[in-house]
Design a protein that fits this description.
The chain has 25 helices and 8 strands. An 8-stranded mixed sheet has the order 2-3-4-1-5-6-7-8, sandwiched between helices. It has helices spanning 8-15, 43-47, 92-95, 107-117, 128-163, 167-170, 190-197, 199-219, 252-283, 290-315, 330-351, 367-393, 406-433, 451-486, 501-514, 520-547, 558-591, 593-606, 622-640, 651-661, 665-668, 680-687, 689-692, 694-703, 764-777, and strands at residues 30-35, 52-57, 62-66, 84-89, 643-649, 671-676, 706-712, 732-736. Among the domains are: 8-90 and 621-777, Rossmann fold, CATH 3.40.50; 204-219 and 251-352, no CATH class. With 816 residues, it is mainly alpha-helical.
Length: 816
C-alpha cells in the first residue's frame, strides 16, 4: 500500500484545520465514506486505485483517499455532482497481528460477554434488567475461577503433587528431579513443591491481567467526540437505544473494575488450593498446632477478600450516559494487591516444614470442579427465568431468536466450552505425564485429574452425535428448499437464455444454503438443551463415582460397560483434540496470512460488543472503530459544511449504523446511509433485540436524511431491514438478481459468477441507489421527506420481497 505523506496542500486542508466552510458561491462538497466488512480489504481495492494516500489515522485504523483526491476540499469545482470517495480501513483491529490468533483460547470469555448483550428488548427501567446483567457478570466470574482451577489442576495437582511425589512418574523426567522425594532435597517437601508450582497459575492470571490492560490502551481507549446537550430529546422513548448514549463505547472504569475483581478471583483460587493442601497435613495432628490455627486465619482472610470481590462485581454495572473514565475507589484498586499479599502469606504457610508430610493420591479440592459446574447450571437456569420475565415485557417481535432465550443458551455454551478446554488440557497433560498408562486405572503411576472431567469427556461423543444429526437435518432441508426454488430460477431471467439444469441447481442450492443462517437458532437451542442434560448427567455420575469408586458401571451388562469405557476414552481424546486444534490454528495463523485473516473474521462477529461481563475476553474493536467514524463524520461536516453518504458492507454496515447513532441530530440529518450485505436485522436484530430491534432501527431511519439497503437471497449474512415508511417507500432494494446472467449471451459470453455476500458494487442497482442518495444530498440542504413522513413503528414487513428469490434487480460488488 502506498502511504506516502500527504502533500503540504493536503495537510493544510485536513490535518491542520482548513477552512470552516466553503466561501460564498463555491459549490458544496459531498463525501462518500466507505466502510469494509468482515475479513477486511485494502484501501486500493475499496477505492479502485493503486495510488492511495493516508488522510487521517494510524497503522491500526485509518482513512484513505485516492492520491488525486487528497486535496479535494480546495478544489470543490472539480467535484460537482460527484462526492469525494474516502475509505475507512479497520481490518488491523481484528487480524493485523498473528499473535492475536491465540485469543481463540479466550472463546469462553467472549461467548459469556455476548450473553450480556442478548437480553430481550424490555423497557430499560424494568427491574429484571439489573438482575439479568448481574447474573451474567457472576457467571463470567465463575469462568475465571474455572480457568484458575484448571491451571492449578495441571501445575499443582498433576505435576507437583501427584507426579513429583511418585517415584515411578518422576523417574524418567530429569526436569522434575529436584522435586522428587527420593533426592531428599529442600524442594522435595510436598508443601514446598506446591508453593513453587503455584507460580504457574499465577503467571497465567497475571498474563490475562496484562493482556486486558494492554488491549484497552491499544484498541478501546478512543473517546467519543463532544456533542450538543439535549440532542436526543425529540426521539420517542420507544425508539431510543443505548447505542446512541455518549458513553456506550467508552467504559474504561467498568473494564478496570472487572479486571481487578477477576484478577483477585484468580489469585484467591490459587490460594484456596494451597490452603486445602495445607489443611490436610495439619489436620493429622488434631488441628491444634500453630500451623493449623494460622491456616484457619488465612482461610478467613481469603473468604473476606472473596466476599469483597463478589460485592465489586455486584456493583459494577455499565454507566453509558457519559464516558466513564473516573478513577476507581481505593478499595477496588487495592484488591488485587491485597489478594497477592494473602497469597504470599499462604505460600509461606504452605511451604513451612512439616516433618513426615508426603503427597498421596489426588490433591484435596477435586470436588470444586463439580461445585463450579452445579453453580453455573443454577446461574443459567436463573438467567433463563429472568430472560423469560423480560421477554414478556418486550415488544412482540416474532423474529427474536429463541423467543428471547438466546442469552441463557449462549451462556450455557460458554460454560460448556470452558469445561471442555479445562478438561482437555488436564486430560492431555495427565496422559503425557504417566507415559503409556491410563491415569486413574490400575498400575497407573498417578490417579489423574478429577473424575468429573472424565465424566464430562464421556458425554462429548453423545453431544457430537446430536450436533451431527442437526447438521444432517439442515442438509436435508437445503435439498428440499433447493428443489422448490429451482422451479422459479429460470423465470427470473430473459426467456431467450436457454435453461441449464446444472446451472439452475447451483443457483437454487446457493439460495437454499444461504437460508440456513435463519435456522441457526435451532442448532443453538438443540446444542444448549443437550448440553444441559448431559452436563447434569456428568455431575451426577461423578458424584456417584466418588461415593462408590470404581463401581460406576458395576453390575451393568458387558456391552453397556464397554460402551461407557469407549465413550470415556473417545471423549477424553476429543477434549484434548479440541485444545490441540485451537493451538494449532493459532500457530498456523501466526505463519499464514490467509489463515490469520480467516480467524480475524471470527473476531469481527464475536468482538463487536464492549467487554461488559468479562474483562479477559478479546478486545472490542468497535470501541476504536465507532469513535473513529463518528469523529470523522462530525468534524468533516462541521468544518466544510458538507453532506455525507456513509456506505457500509457487511459488518461495516453495523459499524456505520452504530456511528450514526453517536452523532447529534443536526449532524445525523446531513448523513445518508447505504448498506449492502448487511446483518443489521437478520443477525443483530434477532440476537440482540434490545439494541438492534425494530424500534431502534425505526428511530435510526427517521433521524437520518435517508437510508437504503441492498440484499440478495444468495447472501448467507446480509438481509433486508424489513421496515416500511408510512408513505409506502421501503428501505430495502432487493432481492437483487444473482448471478447477473443465467446463461451465455452477447453481453455475457462467459458464465456470470454467483456473488453471494460480495461484489455488490458491480450491480447496476448499486450505482442507481448510490446516485439517488447523492442527489438527495443536494447542493444546499438535505432532501426533504414528504409531509407527514414517519417510519412505521418498526413493525417487521414479513411479506416476500417481490415474490420469489432474486425477483428484481441484479447483483453487485462490495467494497471489501
Amino acid at each position: 500500500m502506498e502511504t506516502a505523506d500527504p502533500t503540504p496542500q493536503a495537510r493544510s486542508t485536513d490535518r491542520e484545520g482548513g477552512p470552516e466552510g466553503p466561501p460564498p458561491g463555491v459549490p458544496q462538497l459531498s463525501l462518500e465514506l466507505l466502510v469494509h466488512g468482515v475479513g477486511g480489504t485494502t484501501a486500493q481495492e475499496m477505492l479502485g486505485d493503486p495510488r492511495v494516500q493516508l488522510i487521517t489515522g494510524d497503522d491500526t485504523a485509518a482513512c484513505y483517499r485516492r492520491t488525486d483526491d487528497a486535496d479535494a476540499e480546495q478544489r470543490p469545482d472539480d467535484y460537482r455532482g460527484e462526492p469525494v470517495r474516502e475509505a475507512y480501513c479497520w481490518s488491523n483491529l481484528t487480524s493485523g497481528n498473528g499473535a492475536r490468533a491465540l485469543w481463540l483460547l479466550l472463546v469462553p470469555f467472549m461467548v459469556a460477554n455476548l450473553a450480556h448483550w442478548m437480553r430481550p428488548a424490555a423497557p430499560p427501567e424494568h427491574p429484571a434488567q439489573r438482575l439479568y446483567d448481574l447474573l451474567v457478570r457472576i457467571l463470567a466470574l465463575t469462568l475465571t475461577v474455572l480457568l484458575a482451577a484448571a491451571a492449578c489442576e495441571v501445575a499443582l495437582d498433576l505435576t507437583a503433587w501427584q507426579c513429583a511425589g511418585t517415584t515411578l512418574c518422576a523417574a524418567d523426567k530429569s526436569w522434575m528431579g529436584f522435586l522428587s522425594p527420593d533426592n531428599s532435597g529442600w524442594w522435595s517437601a510436598p508443601g514446598r513443591r506446591l508453593a513453587l508450582a503455584s507460580m504457574v497459575p499465577l503467571l497465567v492470571v497475571g498474563f490475562l491481567w496484562w493482556l486486558s490492560h494492554r488491549t484497552w490502551s491499544a484498541y478501546e481507549s478512543a473517546s467519543p467526540p463532544p456533542r450538543q446537550p439535549g440532542t436526543s430529546r425529540d426521539t420517542p422513548v420507544a425508539e431510543r437505544t443505548a447505542l446512541s448514549l455518549n458513553g456506550f463505547w467508552y467504559g474504561r472504569r467498568l473494564v478496570a473494575r472487572l479486571r481487578a475483581a477477576h484478577t483477585t478471583a484468580g489469585v484467591l483460587t490459587i490460594a484456596a488450593v494451597l490452603l486445602a493442601a495445607g489443611a490436610r497435613a495439619d489436620g493429622r495432628d488434631g488441628g491444634h498446632t500453630a500451623l493449623a490455627v494460622t491456616g484457619r486465619a488465612l482461610a478467613a482472610l481469603v473468604i473476606l477478600l472473596a466476599a469483597v470481590t463478589v460485592v465489586v462485581v455486584w456493583r459494577t454495572a455499565r454507566s453509558e450516559a457519559a464516558p466513564d473514565d473516573e478513577s476507581d475507589h481505593l478499595v477496588v484498586r487495592a484488591l488485587p494487591f491485597a489478594s497477592l499479599g494473602a497469597l504470599a502469606l499462604i505460600v509461606v504457610h504452605t511451604g513451612w516444614a512439616r516433618p513426615g508430610a508426603h503427597s498421596h493420591g489426588a490433591l484435596p479440592g477435586a470436588a470444586a470442579f463439580g461445585g463450579i459446574a452445579v453453580f453455573q447450571g443454577l446461574l443459567v437456569l436463573a438467567l433463563a427465568l429472568t430472560a423469560w420475565v423480560l421477554q414478556r415485557s418486550a415488544p412482540d417481535d416474532a423474529r427474536t431468536a429463541l423467543c428471547g432465550m438466546g442469552g441463557p443458551a449462549v451462556a450455557l455454551l460458554a460454560c460448556a466450552v470452558g469445561g471442555v478446554l479445562s478438561g482437555g488440557v488436564a486430560q492431555r497433560f495427565a496422559d503425557w505425564l504417566d507415559g503409556g498408562a491410563t491415569p486413574g486405572q490400575d498400575h497407573a503411576p498417578i490417579p489423574g485429574p478429577p473424575v468429573l472431567l472424565s465424566w464430562q469427556a464421556s458425554v462429548i461423543p453423545v453431544l457430537l452425535v446430536v450436533v451431527v444429526l442437526v447438521v444432517m437435518l439442515a442438509a436435508v432441508r437445503v435439498m428440499i428448499v433447493s428443489r422448490r426454488v429451482a422451479k422459479d430460477v429460470p423465470g427470473l431471467y430473459d426467456p431467450r437464455e436457454h435453461p441449464d439444469e446444472r446451472r439452475t441447481k447451483r443457483i437454487a442450492g446457493t439460495i437454499a444454503g444461504a437460508g440456513l443462517t435463519d435456522s441457526a437458532p435451532v442448532l443453538v437451542a438443540a446444542t444448549a438443551a443437550v448440553t444441559l442434560v448431559l452436563g447434569a448427567g456428568a455431575v451426577a455420575g461423578a458424584w456417584l463415582s466418588d461415593r462408590a469408586p470404581g463401581r460406576a458401571t458395576e453390575g451393568a451388562p458387558p456391552v453397556l460397560h464397554a460402551a461407557a469405557e469407549t465413550a470415556e476414552s473417545l471423549g477424553s481424546w476429543l477434549m484434548s483434540a479440541g485444545v490441540i486444534l485451537l493451538i494449532t490454528m493459532g500457530r498456523r495463523a501466526y505463519r499464514d496470512h490467509s489463515a490469520r485473516r480467516t480467524i480475524g473474521i471470527l473476531w469481527d462477529v464475536g468482538t463487536f460488543w464492549p467487554r461488559a461481563a468479562h474483562p479477559f475476553a478479546p478486545p472490542c474493536y468497535a470501541e476504536r472503530a465507532v469513535p473513529d467514524l463518528t469523529w470523522r463524520m462530525a468534524t468533516w461536516t462541521e468544518r466544510f459544511d458538507g453532506r455525507l453518504v456513509l456506505s457500509g458492507h457487511s459488518q461495516g454496515s453495523v459499524l456505520a449504523a452504530a456511528a450514526v447513532w453517536q452523532l447529534d441530530l443536526v449532524t445525523r440529518s446531513r448523513v445518508a446511509l447505504l448498506t449492502y450485505g448487511s446483518p443489521l436485522e437478520r443477525l443483530y436484530g434477532r440476537w440482540f433485540p434490545a439494541f438492534f430491534g425494530p424500534p431502534a432501527l425505526t428511530g435510526l431511519h427517521r433521524q437520518m436524511d435517508d437510508w437504503r439497503n441492498l440484499w440478495r437471497f444468495t447472501d448467507p449474512i446480509g438481509g433486508p431491514i424489513r421496515l416500511t415508511c408510512d408513505d409506502g417507500r421501503r428501505i430495502d432494494e432487493g432481492p437483487l438478481r444473482d448471478p447477473l446472467a443465467f446463461g451465455r449471451t452477447l453481453q455475457n459470453p462467459l458464465p456470470a459468477q454467483i456473488l453471494g455476500h460480495g461484489d455488490y458494487q458491480a450491480d447496476p442497482v448499486f450505482g442507481r441507489v448510490r446516485a439517488e442518495l447523492i442527489a438527495r444530498l443536494g447542493p444546499d440542504l438535505p432532501g426533504q421527506r414528504p409531509a407527514g413522513h414517519r417510519a412505521s413503528g418498526g413493525c417487521p414487513d414479513d411479506r416476500p420481497a417481490q415474490g420469489s428469490p432474486g425477483a428484481q434487480g441484479s447483483s453487485g460488488r462490495s467494497s471489501g
